[in-house]
Specification:
32% helix, 434 residues, alpha/beta, globular
Length: 434
């Protein structure tokens, strides 16, 4: 009989099991901070940061809460499995994005941007975001919340040309219209799309679903415009190509010098389901920087949570973790790393309905009012960050950014975050701009 559990209040939401819950949220989920703050102020969401998985287990959480939802995403990069993948100058998208977004674990990356040509392997939204960062005029980047050290490095960058390489054709691209529109409109940059890749596409575009149709129409428009030939920088969408090797430079056997690509073709009726077939031809793209953006995979959270290593997801039935009452999962760790934020939101709502149904059906046990996570952490001697302390970190970032006409200046060292979080005097609010 579940007597006390009547709402979300007795369920714990764990947002990032890879390490710093609140601190990584500080860096990665700024756009959700207003909603998060509102939720916390209505006592629906409790935020405890700096708790590592080794500090508290899923079993510990289930002993305290009636329900626990795992939403820790996919944090491990997929490997290409080709020669040269470990050469200097080859970076994973996860590391590179973490570097310019202020993720503490990536702040010592120091990517070499002294080469004129970069190749990004992958054509999803992350790949386009990296290309945009590499090619955006520095004066515009100065107005964003990009980290100070990344801004300094990008100001000295010699990258002038970025290839975006995709295995399939234009009807199978993984990026969405918003990201492509930003690339097409990028100031001082021209784009190159091969008209041959779009042969016949114009004839079927009107029959595509609306989101795909709008995206395809924008690509067709970009093919025809081939913008701003006097621009100093350029990005090239290179479709129907698969990386087969990353080749060393002639000057240094330990550094990348080119990417060898297999040339593909599509078989079957023109559409999203066409099959990719290798032609047997290859080509090389000289470059000094390679970024792998070919997807992610989730990792198991512990032996007490069933995990399908082959598919990289927690074993579940509509979000209910198999064999573990009260435990749920959502997002990429539930269904695999695919889709955009809207898909993940829809998944979260669906799992939320599942939890509420279990509450109504009295399938969840009542939580123990005498136990709390903060008390458990205190017993274990684990230092954590409260929501108010998390807000203090954010306030300091906003204050520091205000002095530089930026939305915020991200703090990238955990030690500094902890120092600010634990200080007793309040952080001064950012000054009003004149």
């Amino acid at each position: 009989m579940v007597s006390r559990l009547t709402s979300w209040n007795d369920c714990l939401f764990r947002s990032d099991w890879s390490g710093l819950v609140s601190l990584l949220t500080t860096q990665k989920l700024r756009t959700a901070s207003t909603a998060s703050t509102k939720s916390r102020r209505t006592s629906v969401l409790a935020t405890l940061g700096t708790c590592l998985l080794g500090d508290v287990s899923v079993k510990d959480l289930l002993s305290i809460y009636s329900g626990v939802i795992l939403a820790y995403g996919a944090e491990e990069d997929r490997k290409l499995g080709i020669p040269g993948e470990d050469l200097n100058g080859v970076y994973s998208a996860k590391s590179f994005v973490g570097w310019y977004n202020g993720i503490p674990a990536e702040q010592d990356l120091k990517p070499n941007l002294s080469y004129s040509t970069a190749v990004i392997l992958g054509i999803g939204n992350v790949a386009l975001d990296i290309a945009r960062i590499l090619l955006t005029p520095i004066e515009l980047l100065k107005e964003t919340d990009i980290t100070a050290h990344a801004l300094d490095a990008l100001a000295k960058s010699q990258v002038r040309e970025v290839y975006l390489v995709g295995r399939r054709g234009p009807l199978q691209v993984a990026f969405t219209i918003k990201e492509l529109r930003e690339m097409v409109r990028l100031p001082g940059t021209r784009h190159t799309l091969n008209p041959a890749d779009f042969e016949g596409v114009k004839d079927i575009v009107q029959g595509l679903p609306r989101p795909k149709r709008r995206l395809t129409e924008l690509m067709l428009s970009a093919v025809n415009s081939q913008s701003n030939k006097d621009a100093k920088t350029r990005w090239i969408l290179k479709l129907l190509r698969s990386p087969v090797a990353i080749l060393p430079s002639r000057d240094s056997s330990s550094h990348v010098g080119a990417v060898k690509l297999a040339v593909n073709r599509l078989e079957g009726q023109l559409g999203e389901s066409q099959k990719v077939v290798a032609t047997g031809q290859t080509e090389e793209v000289p470059c000094g920087l390679v970024i792998k953006s070919v997807g992610y995979m989730s990792l198991p959270i512990g032996s007490d949570v069933p995990f399908d290593a082959r598919s990289g997801v927690i074993r579940n039935d509509n979000g209910r973790v198999v064999g573990v009452p009260g435990l749920y999962c959502t997002g990429w760790v539930r269904r695999g790393p695919r889709g955009v934020i809207l898909d993940t939101m829809s998944d979260a709502f669906a799992v939320g309905k599942t939890v509420l149904q279990d509450i109504r059906d009295q399938k969840l046990r009542s939580s123990d009012p005498a136990r709390s996570l903060s008390a458990l952490l205190a017993e274990k001697g684990v230092s954590f960050v409260s929501f108010d302390e998390w807000e203090r970190i954010g306030q300091e970032e906003v204050r520091a950014g205000s002095a530089k006409n930026k939305p915020r200046e991200k703090i990238t060292r955990i030690e500094e975050m902890m120092r600010i979080a634990k200080q007793t005097s309040p952080v001064s609010p950012p000054s009003e701009k004149s």
